[in-house]
């Protein structure tokens, strides 16, 4: 075969993962910062902020992936992609399970605001861990 | 044969062929047979296996 190993070029899927991780980190960092500033005394404001955050995240993902799909043709999914996705999900599961345990501890305090945010943080961190680990597997080998 | 040509014939991405070549991914037996079939050679001629312990000592 005539090509040399890739060391720098990112595939569509790797770029998509980078965009997803960056978007999740940025959007949810903003959400948690704003939500904790508002505090538990204004649940309506926090609920509205959450809705805005979800819409913002969807818009960012659609826009960024549309641009990505134009500049970089998406590739087919093969067995390596499925193996990497499975390993990423495996790592994400451990993060989610740890987060769920932390959320149970928070729930024991009886404070709904903090319990809900502990659950949300667990979900977000698990998603970030899943995508970030997939990116590492793509770059370093699965 | 380019990586892209081999990838198209086996039905995987070029990145996967690249990862196999760079020893970053071990293909399934099914894909290994397909790659060997593309080159028209037996499996043991297209691939070789080194136990992890040997690989580690070879690197040291």
Can you describe what's shown?
Chain A is mainly α. Helix content of chain A is 80%, strand content 0%. Chain A has four helices and no strands. The radius of gyration of chain A is 18 Å and the shape is flat. Chain A starts with 11 loop residues before the first helix and ends with a helix. The model of chain A has no long low-confidence stretch (mean pLDDT 91). With 60 residues, chain B is mainly α. Chain B contains five helices and no strands. Chain B has helices at 3-10, 14-21, 29-39, 43-46, 52-59. The longest helix of chain B is centred in the middle third of the chain and has 11 residues, at 29-39. Chain B is globular, with a radius of gyration of 13 Å. Classes of the chains: A mainly alpha (142), B mainly alpha (60). Chain A binds chain B through residues 1-3, 5-6, 11, 13, 75-76, 78-81, 83, 138, 140-142, and chain B through 1-4, 6, 11-19, 21-25, 27-28, 31.
């Amino acid at each position: 075969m005539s090509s040399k190993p890739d060391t720098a070029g990112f595939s569509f899927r790797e770029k998509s993962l980078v965009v997803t991780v960056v978007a999740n980190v940025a959007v949810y960092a903003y959400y948690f910062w704003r939500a904790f500033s508002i505090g538990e005394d204004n649940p309506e404001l926090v609920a509205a902020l959450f809705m805005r955050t979800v819409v913002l995240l969807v818009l960012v993902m659609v826009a960024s992936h549309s641009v990505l799909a134009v500049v970089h043709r998406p590739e087919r999914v093969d067995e390596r992609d499925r193996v990497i996705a499975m390993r990423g999900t495996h790592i994400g599961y451990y993060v989610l399970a740890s987060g769920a345990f932390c959320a149970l501890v928070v729930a024991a305090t009886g404070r709904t605001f903090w319990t809900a945010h502990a659950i949300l943080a667990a979900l977000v961190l698990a998603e970030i861990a899943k995508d970030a680990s997939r990116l590492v597997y793509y770059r370093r080998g699965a | 044969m380019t990586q892209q040509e081999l990838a198209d014939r086996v039905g995987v991405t070029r990145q996967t062929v690249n990862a196999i070549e760079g020893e970053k991914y071990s293909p399934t037996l099914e894909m290994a047979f397909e790659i060997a079939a593309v080159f028209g050679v037996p499996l043991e001629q297209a691939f070789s296996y080194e136990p992890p312990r040997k690989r580690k000592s070879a690197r040291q």
